[in-house]
């Protein structure tokens, strides 16, 4: 898994960053990490198409970054924007919980 | 990170905490985790911090302090009060700090996860300073931060094994639990060494205590030891009365009172002995004790006075009136006077302070004035063992110790009122007031002086601006005369020389 910014194909090519900025912390390409990223992509496409970007950070590559966002568990999804920051830990398998955690409904509709 | 000396018992990592290394016979188990448990505010964090700081500064073992409750700034501020500059150690790359913040309200859990992030952070911190020591304070915060305790427990088990595999000497703090040792049963995972800290308040006086609950594969002291968080870190009082192996010096310490030396075989007390001065109020206990201290200073030795009834200034003024100039010696640095109210702290806390003062100043003579009211409660069950510790400690420190003790003047059952310590004393002087012919005179007797022939007489003594003098016993008509009667008879004899023989005795 790449430890760099992963640009989503649907992302509009404009200078302005999308409304939803999500960051997924993982530790290597474990089953949980892979599942989390897949779940997250599917969810974003369904509910936030064109309005999001996902940055995947592999802590095995960048261990320093763990302290900054207070990462403890992996995978951890951090909603950087819209503020306030929210965290969801786990493989994001329960879509309903993730939507609640991200507060997608309240913000999107 | 090598496991050293596997064959010759458990390898230990010294904590550098005074007293703790003695109790644990060398320190904490090297390369293994140690659990430190206790209630809130009992000094767990301080102990963990001192372990890290001492490791980095004194033993060449850098450390990582991972905190779950305080921030790095808060911790640095707290340990600064112990005289440790954590920021400086961080700058020198000897200590790495990481504050792990877990807030349940900010975290949503969905699906499977593990705590690899914590491992990565810890590994990163360890690698950044080349750490040999790790402190985790307080890991239990994770239990309130994460709802999936099954995962958490599995991960903690993995964490402790991981620390062991990396050869880290670790201190893990935990809250004390109601039924189990710790609130979340951490002892299940960390089973090598468990220290328990306790902060008890009894009769409005607080005492901190430390106990080694278990220490696998090592001898350790099993008692509760009082400890103190002082200006130079934690100090544990390890003294026990388990052994009676003081050496017995034959040197003598003159008392500075000519007549008293005479009574004690002409030479004074044995060096490093324990001397009890007991008497009713106003019999001159403090004055004689101060004179002993002055005499030590006059010989060029250091003396230390713990004064629990008078302030240092008061003591200096009062002693000056009887020709004992203490100020001169405090100015020269040969004498120190510590004054405090006995009720300020618990008895054991006093003991810890004395211990520290004695270790720092290295006096040859110590006065404790008085030991009889170091506690408010004479029925305190801990009194005798604690005094025994004090007496033992001073003996082992090669100090001649002078204790004053207040007793009633009634004269009966003097041994009872000595709170059982007289049997521990090598010498015992009893001061008393004699009332006869409408006046009161002070009298002194040597009740015991182990290992020397001593006088059995009751001797009158007087205070004057020239000092303390024992008056020659004056026997007339088969009675010892004291006070004015003696003075009268003396002058009568001076007027008619040879009329009567003075019953002078050694």
In terms of topology, how is this protein built?
The complex is a heterodimer of chains A (109) and B (506).
Chain A: E1 5-6, E2 20-26, H1 31-47, E3 52-58, H2 65-68, E4 76-81, E5 86-89, H3 95-102, H4 104-108
Parallel strand pairs in A: 2-3
Antiparallel strand pairs in A: 1-3, 2-4, 4-5
Chain B: E1 12-13, H1 20-23, E2 28-29, E3 33-38, H2 44-58, E4 63-67, H3 72-80, H4 86-91, E5 95-99, E6 107-109, H5 116-129, E7 133-137, H6 141-145, H7 149-165, E8 169-175, E9 193-202, E10 205-215, E11 224-230, E12 233-236, E13 252-253, H8 258-263, E14 269-270, E15 274-279, H9 285-298, E16 303-307, H10 312-320, H11 326-332, E17 335-339, H12 347-361, E18 365-369, H13 383-396, E19 400-406, H14 414-417, E20 427-436, E21 439-449, E22 458-464, E23 467-470, E24 474-476, E25 479-481, H15 483-495
Parallel strand pairs in B: 3-8, 3-9, 4-5, 4-7, 7-8, 15-19, 15-20, 16-17, 16-18, 18-19
Antiparallel strand pairs in B: 1-2, 9-10, 10-11, 11-12, 13-14, 20-21, 21-22, 22-23, 24-25
Helix pairs in contact in B: 12-13
Structure notes:
The complex is a heterodimer of chains A (109) and B (506). Chain A is of the alpha+beta class and 109 residues long. Chain A is built from 4 helices and 5 strands, in the order E-E-H-E-H-E-E-H-H. Chain A has a single domain, classed as Glutaredoxin (3-Layer(aba) Sandwich). A 5-stranded mixed β-sheet of chain A has the order 1-3-2-4-5, with helices on one face. Chain B is an alpha/beta fold and 506 residues long. Helices cover 30% and strands 27% of the residues of chain B. Chain B has helices at residues 20-23, 44-58, 72-80, 86-91, 116-129, 141-145, 149-165, 258-263, 285-298, 312-320, 326-332, 347-361, 383-396, 414-417, 483-495, and strands spanning 12-13, 28-29, 33-38, 63-67, 95-99, 107-109, 133-137, 169-175, 193-202, 205-215, 224-230, 233-236, 252-253, 269-270, 274-279, 303-307, 335-339, 365-369, 400-406, 427-436, 439-449, 458-464, 467-470, 474-476, 479-481. In chain B, the strands form 5 sheets. In chain B, strands 5-4-7-8-3-9-10-11-12 form a 9-stranded mixed β-sheet, sandwiched between helices. A 9-stranded mixed β-sheet of chain B has the order 17-16-18-19-15-20-21-22-23, with helices on both faces. A two-stranded antiparallel sheet of chain B has the order 1-2. The longest helix of chain B has 17 residues, at 149-165. Residues 1-8 and 499-506 of chain B have low confidence and may be disordered. Strand 5 of chain A pairs parallel with strand 6 (107-109) of chain B.
């Amino acid at each position: 898994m790449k430890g760099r910014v992963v640009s989503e194909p649907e992302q509009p090519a404009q200078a302005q960053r999308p409304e939803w900025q999500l960051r997924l912390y993982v530790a290597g390409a474990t089953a949980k990490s892979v599942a989390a990223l897949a779940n997250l992509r599917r969810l974003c496409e369904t509910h936030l198409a064109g309005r999001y970007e996902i940055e995947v950070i592999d802590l095995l590559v960048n261990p320093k970054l763990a302290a900054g966002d207070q990462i403890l568990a992996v995978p951890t999804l951090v909603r950087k924007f819209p503020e306030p920051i929210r965290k969801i830990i786990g493989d994001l398998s329960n879509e309903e919980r993730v939507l609640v955690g991200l507060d997608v409904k309240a913000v999107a509709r | 990170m090598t496991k050293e000396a596997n064959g010759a018992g458990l390898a230990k990592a010294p904590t550098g905490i005074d007293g703790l290394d003695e109790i644990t016979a060398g320190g904490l188990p090297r390369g293994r985790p140690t659990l430190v448990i206790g209630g809130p505010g009992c000094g767990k964090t301080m102990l963990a911090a001192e372990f890290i700081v001492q490791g980095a500064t004194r033993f060449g073992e850098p450390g990582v302090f991972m905190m779950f409750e305080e921030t790095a700034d808060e911790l640095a501020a707290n340990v600064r009060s112990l005289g440790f500059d954590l920021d400086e150690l961080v700058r020198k790359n000897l200590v790495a700090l990481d504050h792990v913040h877990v807030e349940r309200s900010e975290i949503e859990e969905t699906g499977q996860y593990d705590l690899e992030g914590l491992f990565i952070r810890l590994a990163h911190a360890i690698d950044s300073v080349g750490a040999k020591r790790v402190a985790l304070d307080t890991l239990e915060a994770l239990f309130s931060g994460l709802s999936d305790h099954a995962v958490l427990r599995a991960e903690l088990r993995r964490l402790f094994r991981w620390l062991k595999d990396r050869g880290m000497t670790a201190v893990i703090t935990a809250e004390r639990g109601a039924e189990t040792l710790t609130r979340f049963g951490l002892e299940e995972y960390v089973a090598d060494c468990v220290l328990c800290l306790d902060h008890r308040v009894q009769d409005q006086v607080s005492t901190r205590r430390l106990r080694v609950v278990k220490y696998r594969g090592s001898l350790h002291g099993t008692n509760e030891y009082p400890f103190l968080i002082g200006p130079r870190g934690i100090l544990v009082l390890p003294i026990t009365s388990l052994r009676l192996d003081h050496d017995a010096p034959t040197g003598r310490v003159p008392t500075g009172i000519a007549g008293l030396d005479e009574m004690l075989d002409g030479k004074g007390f044995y060096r490093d002995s324990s001397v009890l001065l007991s008497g009713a109020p106003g019999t001159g206990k403090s004055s004689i004790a101060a004179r002993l201290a002055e005499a030590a200073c006059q010989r060029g030795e250091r003396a230390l006075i713990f004064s629990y009834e008078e302030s240092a200034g008061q003591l200096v003024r009062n002693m000056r009136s009887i020709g004992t100039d203490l100020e001169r010696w405090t100015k020269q640095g040969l004498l120190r006077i510590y004054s405090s109210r006995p009720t300020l702290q618990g008895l054991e806390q006093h003991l810890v302070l004395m211990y520290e003062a004695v270790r720092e100043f290295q006096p040859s003579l110590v006065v404790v004035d008085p030991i009889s009211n170091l506690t408010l409660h004479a029925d305190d069950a801990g009194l005798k063992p604690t005094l025994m510790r004090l007496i033992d400690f001073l003996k082992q420190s090669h100090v001649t110790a002078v204790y004053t003790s207040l007793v009633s003047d009634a004269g009966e059952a003097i041994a009872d009122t000595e709170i059982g310590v007289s049997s521990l004393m090598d010498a015992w002087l009893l001061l008393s007031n004699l009332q006869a012919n409408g006046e009161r005179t002070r009298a002194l007797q040597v009740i015991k002086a182990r290992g020397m022939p001593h006088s059995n007489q009751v001797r009158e003594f007087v205070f004057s601006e020239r000092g303390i003098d024992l008056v020659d016993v004056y026997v007339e008509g088969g009675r010892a005369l004291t006070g004015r009667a003696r003075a009268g008879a003396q002058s009568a004899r001076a007027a008619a020389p040879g009329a009567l023989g003075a019953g002078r005795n050694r």
